[in-house]
Amino acid sequence: MNKTFLTIILLAAAVYIVPLNVRPLSVPDETRYAEIPREMIASGDWVVPRLNGLLYFEKPVLGYWLNAISILIFGENNFAVRLPSAISALLSALLTFLLVRKFSGDERKALLSAAALLSCVLVFAIGIFNVLDSLFSFLVTATMVSFFFAAHEPDTRRQKLLLILCGISCGLAFLTKGFLAFAFPVVVIVPFLLWEKRFKDIFVLPWIPAITALLVIMPWAVLVHLRNNDYWYQFFWVEHVQRFFSPAGKAQHAEPPWYFIPFIIGGIFPWIMLLPASIAGMWRRGFSSPLNRFAACWLSFLFLFLSASSGKLGTYILPCFPPMIILLIEGLMKHLEDGRRLAFRAGAISCSASAVLLAIAAIVTQGSDLMPNLNIYYFSETWKWMSLTAGLLVLGLLTAISAMKADATKRILLYSASPLLLFFALHFAVPSRMHERSRECMDSVGMMRLHSDRISPDSIIVADSYLVPAACWAYKIKDIYLFGSGGEMTYGLQQNNKDLLIDHPEEFQEFINLKKVTVTLILNSNDYRKWESILPKPSFLSNMNGLAFVHYQATTVPQKEPEM
After folding, report:
1. Which domain range does residue 461 map to?
2. Looking at the structure, do residues 508 and 405 belong to the same domain, yes or no?
3. How far is CA 165 from the centre of its chain?
4. Residues 179, 228: one domain?
5. Which helix (H) or strand (E) holds 353?
């Protein structure tokens, strides 16, 4: 078990952490969560979040702090801003291991649960990106796990310490994504205690975590209020209440109640193929153990709560994955230990066949004109395409071998290892250039830096709000003008003394004439084509790889005032 545990740690580090720097930052999310910490460091203001120099109140501050600390240690690079997210994914797996080992008494189940969690495609995909969801999910998991430990701790002193740890985790989760950090434990813990018939504990156990969480939150909450007394109205009422209760048609990221189901089905790949075997095992196992009941409440009530919200994004479902994997492994182990191997074997072989078919399709596609867009994506980068193919073939091979093994632990461990080469290859498989009709530029920051020699200290940059965080990060500046709309920076624009918004493309010529300095306009290629006939004729234009870099040379440069 010790060797297996060490192997899992090394593989996880190799897949999740080592290649973090090789991919370009995606827009707008990764560049946003890189730029806000950069501006914190540059300004010295670690209290009030700003983006492009504008107040930005969509999230609290902890995620920015961690990214800023990582930047100070490792520099302003992709690795630094993604590292907290990757570490959070690994820590979530560690907590899952500790929880299962303690309350199942079976170290094999604990190891398998941790390995299975890290081999879920959604856990991996979110864990290697610079977004807040992986960190938030880890802190929610820490809150749930520490509470469950406390609820079953007979020693009063140790129970209080565990409840304090629960409160610290909850407070830090609040400082990451806000009031959901309070809602999640409530919708899980109350039904669990009711199921356990521990009615008194509903009113007794939460006090220490609640007070501790408030103590963790209070210093920053007071400071940000003193610095900007509109923060809590904007953050609580607009970003939480209105977003959660908005009518479905008007909510930000409005989606139907069943929205998360495809993300769960696809997100637990490759384990989705073994779901029938696991369900069969859980049907026989039942929910007699407190851990299984807690995991069932954690998964089901959290899923229902998230589904009830009007606004949804696929990443929001991540905190449901630890309990889902705990139940999945519990069911699989019961199924295999009972000698019922047919469903596992059928699922593993189905996964193997699917992976091999995808690999064959990839090879055929790369050598033909059946899908010309894919050929254009990977033209002169065949090694990237082939690395994905190799990853699919290894996945198919290992899942096939797992179907043949007699030992249950070895079966599930092999299945857990099957997607790791594919995951590793995905870091390197981002194409250097996109199809010319594509809306997105895969490396917006890199494209902008190609033209950095045209950006002088006194020039003005105008960009689509979608690209502003990337431009700020690329050129290490702020106060970029926004073209067309304020987007997510609308609130900051309303509070800013400077007029940084050009509402209509028709105003751009007047803007250039008024400023009388060199102006650079950055848009995605499709938007530039849309407005090209209205915009003034540029002195320089680079319109490639999904990004339009449009340069307007100043005709009249204002004279400097003579020095006195």
Report:
1. 444-552
2. no
3. 25
4. yes
5. helix 342-366
Residue 376 and residue 330 share a domain: no
Q: Cα–Cα distance between 173 and 140 in angstroms, integer? A: 6
Query: Same structural domain for residues 146 and 272?
Result: yes
The two structure tokens encoding residue 228: 């900007």
Q: How many angstroms separate the CA atoms of 116 and 122, rounded?
A: 12
Query: Beta strands 481-483 and 519-524: pairing type?
Result: unpaired
Residue 554 token pair? 């100043």
pLDDT on residue 546: 81
- The two tokens of residue 533 are 């006939």
Question: 106 and 252: one domain?
Answer: yes
Bridge partners, residue 552, by sequence: 519
Q: Which residues of the chain have pLDDT under 50?
A: 249, 370-379, 434-439, 556-564
Q: How many whole angstroms separate alpha carbon 333 and alpha carbon 343? A: 12
What is the predicted pLDDT for the residue at 250? Answer: 55
CA dihedral defined by 203, 208, 214, 217, rounded to 10 degrees?
-130
Q: What is the pLDDT of residues 47-66, one digit of tens each?
A: 999 999 999 988 999 999 99
Instruction: Give me the pLDDT at residue 249, please.
Output: 47
Contact status, residue 483 vs residue 548, Cβ threshold 8 Å: no
Q: What is the 3-state secondary structure of 109-174?
A: HHHHHHHHHHCCHHHHHHHCCCCCHHHHHHHHHHHHHHHHHHHCCCCHHHHHHHHHHHHHHHHHHH
Q: Which pLDDT does position 562 carry in this prediction?
A: 43
CA distances for 80 relative to 20, 83, 84, 229, 359, angstroms: 8, 5, 8, 32, 33
Q: Residue 122: inside a domain, yes or no?
A: yes
Report the DSSP beta bridge partners of residue 463. Answer: 482, 522
Within 10 angstroms of residue 337's Cβ, the number of other Cβ atoms is: 11
Which two structure tokens, joined as six digits, stand for 26?
């995606």
Of the residues 371, 398, 428, the one at which a domain ends? 428
pLDDT, position 245: 60
Instruction: Mark whether 393 and 538 lie in a shared domain.
Output: no
Q: Are residues 399 and 466 in the same domain?
A: no
Give the gyration radius of the chain's Cα atoms. Answer: 26
The encoded tokens of residue 142 equal 């820490």
Amino acid letter, 485:
S
The contacts of residue 272 (CB under 8 Å, 6+ apart) are: 265, 266
**Domain end point (choices 428, 461, 490):** 428
Q: Determine, yes or no, domain membership for 32.
A: no
Residue 562 lies in a domain: no
Please tell me whether residue 543 adopts helix, strand or coil conformation.
strand
Strands 519-524 and 547-552: antiparallel
Sequence-distant (6+) residues with CB within 8 A of 160 are: 208
Q: What is the reported pLDDT for 251?
A: 54
378 with 513, same domain: the answer is no
Q: How many domains does one find in the chain?
A: 3
Question: Exposed e or buried b for every residue in 122-151, given b needs 16+ CB within 10 A?
Answer: bbbbbbbbbbbbbbbbbbbbbbbbbbbbbb
Q: Please tell me the predicted confidence (pLDDT) of residue 196.
A: 94
Best CA proximity match to 119, nearest among 394, 520, 390: 394
* The two three-digit tokens of residue 539, written as one number: 């002195």
DSSP 463: E
Is residue 422 in some structural domain? yes
